[in-house]
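User: My instructor asked us to take a sequence, write out its structure as tokens, and then describe one feature of it. I'm not sure where to start. Here is the sequence I was given:
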Amino acid sequence: MIGNHARPVAVALAIFTMTLAAGRPSLAGELPQARPDQVGLDQAKLQEAGALFRRAVEQKEIAGAVLLVARHGKVAYLEAVGKQDVESGAAMSPATIFRIASMTKPITSTAAMILAEEGRLDLSDPISRYLPEFRFMKVAVPRERKAGAGPPGSSGEEYDLIEAYRPITVRDLLMHTSGLCYRFTNRPILGRMYAEAGICDGLTPSDVTLAENVRRLAGLPLLHQPGTAWEYGLNTDVLGRLVEVVSGRPLDQFFAERIFRPLRMDDTFFLVPEDRRSRLAALYEPGPDGKIRRTADGATTRGALIYSPDVAYRQRPGYFSGGAGLLSTAGDYARFLQMLLNRGELDGARVLRPETVAAMTRDQTGGLSMWIPVHGLAFGYGFGVTTRPDTSVRKDPVGTFAWGGIYYTDFWVDPKDEVIGVMMTQIYPSGQLKLRDEFHRLVNEAIRR
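Assistant: Let's start with the prediction itself. The structure tokens for your sequence are:
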């Protein structure tokens, strides 16, 4: 699927179809395929997207990428560019497996909503009903800092602990309004506490189980009163633990039985099986000259963030991070998104009711400020939601829901135009790259209504 700038998308798709017949493993082929013009997409604009990523590969800004666009339930564009592993020379492929990090969150949210549909939990329930360690939560309130007290978050900072006004609910976890945060965001007071407690953000192999990490988290104060603010954090890891307790099964088993098998997502898991390791994309980072260099296995620390490429295949003692732990392919993830676009069903397998998907994909935060404005200015149950005309480069239509992962993976779903976009790369940090926004823009400009 790696081609020159003039290669027509239709030809690239024909090549992809032939490779499927030859046995290349990629579940994207199980979604119907179509030429871009057959589903109202402009082929030239999609070619521009491919050229954009090929230039980034040539300039060594990224190692490679897989791009997928579907409309009306059919894959109209699927291209792999560059290398999944520069050092070994392995080419990027539609079957390449990626660390999707926070793109795990919508799947964990879906698991919770399955249990809610079955009446096994209620979104208004206090989570302490299932996780009693969260019964008596407190909120850390900074005092006015004194001269010489040290920087915010230092051991010299003074604070008061006050009772939480109300319990954390299941809905708070889904919406990120619980008061929990991430260790890597290094919030005043809590950043130090999270570090001292050994809290894992889900991006490194853990020495403790998910249950133990959640227990430690429950012993720390909250950043704010539940329901009063939006704060990106370990909410979805706690939600994953709640799914384990309510279902009586480890999170990986629940995902496999209730989501992955029905949707035929055979290349999505928490740990890459040994026989598929050859399809795992390497993780890269920009070097001092701006050109990519491979991120070494083992823990890498950037400020308060600790991450490790080998979390993808190193055994962990039952730590399945519902917020950041999954690996997947572009094709697998597109099947999950198509299920949501179809209002809960794909190929005869119903995962959620239509009304559940409607609730997940609309604004649930009611105007609370989001400090991650990349994927809309509101939040549903697991993703950002565009609630007013998008003035950014992307120009995502109102109603679009989207999210991404820290290693520069991204997705969006436009229900109005029935469009799905998936971008998979593996680089961190990626702050200087504009590929995600330009990909959104070009695909949106390709739509012929």
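For the description part of your assignment, you could build on this observation: The longest strand covers residues 74-85. Try explaining in your own words what that tells you about the chain.
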